[in-house]
Automatic annotation (TrEMBL):
Name of the protein in question: ABC transporter substrate-binding protein
InterPro entries: PorZ_N, Secre_tail, WD40/YVTN_repeat-like_dom_sf, WD40_repeat_dom_sf
Domain of life: Bacteria
UniProt xrefs under SUPFAM superfamilies: NHL repeat, WD40 repeat-like
A family per Pfam: PorZ_N_b_propeller
Signal sequence extent: 1-20
Keyword Signal: yes
Keywords: Signal
Coiled-coil regions listed: none
Keyword Chloroplast recorded: no
Domain PorZ N-terminal beta-propeller: start-end pairs: 49-202
């Protein structure tokens, strides 16, 4: 009989592994949530656990926890399945997009056969993985595949195709020489022989709808309310009614059934042993010695005493906007909008916001039991009372408004101080969006859809917090603009993008919250915004005072912005024109610019929806780096916010799939030199073939690189606090092995610095 497989069905043209692909480095670190534990395996007193965005290792005797994520070795986020073989120290990670990572002591191999498959167009999510020896059975929407962990290649695949429809394998396991798979129509089995790929030769061992299965010495599987055990013969029900089985795990001496928050253990013959409750819903559980450990949805691994173990991180991965403060403190909002930044997107888990206090992540208990709806678009610390925070709750219900909450360091929790309805209880109007503060600590909030509806139209408004009356004073800023974005305060003005109309607002509050003398300046499409753009989304002011304005389509720059915008009739926003193949082309002509951030060296970080993040030179003419989820640890190509700690150079990227950081090369740039560093150094060609970075430079640095005899081999002017040398001399040839001296002066020659670079070709 003809042998059918993924390859012969046209699903795969060849084996696709990305063994050499390295997308992480020591510059990256994740701030992912590890609360939602999907699968666990015990290895000699250590629990290896898979969460949504990474793997972590918990050593029971010492309490040590280490983690593995896209920031330091994995190739994806959104883990959907995992298993681990303690004998070979091999793990297999499955992702929602169908790709896999093979983790061995020798490294991590990326397998992308399923995502690029062309013969099957249904869901390619890896729903379950079960390892037996050097083989793993993979459950996918089309059925099952056998994967050889030693060779890192697929063997046979069975497509559960009947009547033109595919039936998904919910889970599967290898027991003896057979693969057993549970589906919505029954427990199915087949020997691993030449007929394995032929679905008509599979046997339905037991009809019914089954979700979970595992084996080790015995076979156990379950429906939603009943578990079964089998030694290869007729399955026998375990005499215990269940409410909603979430997982079945078989160890060498036990069958462990996870039923919501309660974990039941049985002997391998199905005799009841014990039950444990963890006080919250669990995905899975395992047994180490005589102790049961639960893999919870919201608290990582829990032991029977109720203690939680997981890498520290936010409550959930979902993040929208960031505010970063001194002492490494972070406030993270979790809201979202759709339909032209109009309609709130409800998060069913109602996270509110997260807070990192410099040592650990805090999630306010206020949001955990609360049945109210929260869609927090921004959260900012009060500059006068840093232990109090303002949050903007953008919803279509009676909870809409600004909230003030107070942090207590003793309890490590927040309590509600007050809700501000912004002058109305109309659920569709006065929707708060984002905060900013000025140099005298006034707090402002941008408001969308003020006085929404006829006959007045939908205004954009600005609210100023009046400390004397503990309320917000509101001034309608622009009629019929509808929605608003988070404002930026700089150069005495509140800069306010407008996402629903092709306009941009600068608001002068005169450094007071008194609205009587306020003034607004409005730029329209006539000022130069792209005719095809539906609105403005983001803004940053650089060291030259230029406003970089990101649009729904395209990027514009307003030179000398604080002065130019005060004469809107003559102000002109301009695209950045770059040269491509000898022709001028508009930078980001068709891109939606979600966020722009300026670092200490005046370089620009730009987030393009679906296009990742670009790191540009000060004038935008040069792309220094372009990070995407394909070539970096970014979890997605849609980054909703970027923040730069200008003292350290650390860059924070927020997304709906988690937060990740990148240690930039530019920090605290001034007209003088800082702590000049060169890396890598020495430069050994066999180990490193990139450019050498020199950081800690002045804003403008004159650089001469000379050899040991004083001959100049390279010279340049560096701007922005750092420079990259490609190790070529002035003729474009790679320099010879040896020691080279870097001689540097700042722009006016008042400061100087030196460094050495050793080159080994």
């Amino acid at each position: 009989m003809k042998k059918l497989s993924l390859i012969s069905l046209g699903i795969l043209a060849s084996l696709h592994v990305a063994n050499a692909q390295t997308i992480s480095s020591k510059k990256w670190a994740d701030l992912f949530s590890y609360n939602n534990v999907l699968a666990m395996k015990e290895d000699n007193g250590k629990i290896v656990a898979a969460a949504e965005s990474g793997i972590f290792y918990y050593t029971i005797s010492t309490g040590e926890i280490t983690k593995l994520s896209k920031a330091n070795g994995l190739h994806e986020v959104k883990i959907s399945a995992f298993d681990y073989n303690p004998q070979t120290k091999t793990g297999l990670v499955g992702y929602q997009n169908g790709s896999m990572d093979v983790i061995t002591p020798d490294g991590i191999t990326y397998v992308v056969d399923i995502p690029i498959a062309t013969g099957y167009n249904g869901s390619k999510k890896i729903s379950h993985i079960s390892i037996t020896g050097d083989l793993a059975v993979i459950s996918v929407g089309y059925g099952v595949s056998i994967f050889d962990l030693r060779k890192k290649e697929f063997k046979d695949s069975a497509f559960f195709l009947s009547g033109g429809l595919y039936e998904a394998s919910n889970e599967a396991t290898i027991f003896g020489n057979k693969v057993y798979a549970v589906t919505n129509t029954g427990l199915k089995s087949h020997e691993m022989n030449t007929n394995f790929p032929v679905y008509t030769t599979w046997t339905t061992e037991m009809p019914g709808s089954f979700k979970h299965i595992d084996s080790e010495g015995v076979l156990s599987f379950s429906s939603a309310t009943t578990a079964y055990v089998s030694n290869g013969g007729t399955p026998v029900p375990i005499a215990q009614p269940f409410t909603n089985v979430h997982d079945v795990v078989v160890t060498s001496g036990s069958i462990i059934v996870t039923d919501l928050s309660r974990i039941y253990t049985f002997n391998t013959n199905g005799t009841f042993n014990n039950n444990v409750t963890f006080g919250e819903e669990c995905n899975t559980a395992t047994k180490v010695g005589n102790s049961v450990y639960g893999g919870t949805i919201m608290s990582g691994i829990k032991n029977e005493a109720g203690n939680s173990f997981r890498p520290d991180g936010p409550y959930l991965n979902f993040a929208y906007k960031l505010n970063v403060y001194g002492d490494n403190q972070i406030l993270v909002s979790t809201g979202a909008r759709e339909n032209r930044f109009n309609t709130p997107v409800a998060n069913t888990k109602n996270p509110g916001f997260y807070y990192f206090n410099g040592a650990e992540w805090i999630h306010p208990s206020y949001f955990k039991p609360d049945t109210n709806i929260f869609n927090v678009l921004d959260v900012m610390a009060d500059p006068v009372n840093p232990n109090e925070v303002f949050l903007a709750n953008y919803t279509f219900d009676s909870n809409r408004g600004v909230y003030k909450m107070k942090y207590d360091a003793g309890s490590k929790d927040f309590t509600l101080v007050k809700r501000y309805n912004l002058g109305t209880e109309d659920i569709y109007t006065m929707r708060p969006v984002g905060f900013a503060s000025d140099e005298v600590n006034n707090v402002f909030v941008s408001i969308g859809f003020a006085n929404d509806g006829p006959p007045t139209g939908a205004y954009v408004a600005i609210g100023g917090y009046d400390r004397a009356t503990d309320n917000f004073l509101i001034r309608n800023a622009a009629q019929n603009f509808g929605a608003a974005q988070k404002p930026l305060y700089q150069d005495g003005l509140l800069w306010l993008p407008n996402p629903r109309t092709n306009n941009f607002i600068a608001y002068d509050a005169k450094k007071t919250i008194n609205t009587s003398d306020d003034k607004e300046y409005i730029l329209t499409q006539a000022n130069g915004f792209a005719a095809t753009s539906g609105g403005t989304l983001s803004v940053a002011i650089d060291k030259s005072g230029d406003a970089w304005i990101g649009g729904d389509i395209g990027l514009r720059v307003l030179p000398d912005a604080a002065t130019a915008i005060k004469t809107p009739a003559t102000a002109k926003v301009e695209p950045v024109i770059i040269e491509q193949n000898g022709l001028g082309e508009e930078l980001f002509r068709d891109g939606q610019i979600l966020q722009i951030e300026v670092d200490a060296g005046d370089h620009k970080w730009v987030s393009v929806d679906g296009g990742g993040v670009y790191y540009l030179s000060a004038d935008g003419q040069q792309t220094i780096k372009h990070f995407t989820k394909e070539n970096s640890p970014l979890p997605t190509n849609t980054i909703t916010d970027i923040k730069v700690d200008k003292k350290t150079g650390k860059v924070y990227f927020a997304s709906y799939d988690g937060i990740i950081t990148y240690q930039g090369d530019v920090s605290d740039v001034t007209s003088d030199f800082g702590n000049v560093m060169v890396y890598p150094n020495p430069v050994v060609y066999s180990n490193f073939k990139g450019k050498v970075t020199i950081k800690g430079l002045a804003e403008v640095s004159n650089i001469r690189i000379v050899d040991a005899t004083g001959n100049i081999v390279h010279s340049a002017v560096a701007r922005g606090g750092y420079y990259e040398w490609d190790l070529n001399n002035q003729r474009g040839q790679r320099v010879a092995s040896g020691v080279y001296f870097v001689l540097m002066t700042n722009e006016d020659g008042s400061d100087k610095a030196t460094a050495k670079i050793a080159v080994v070709n």
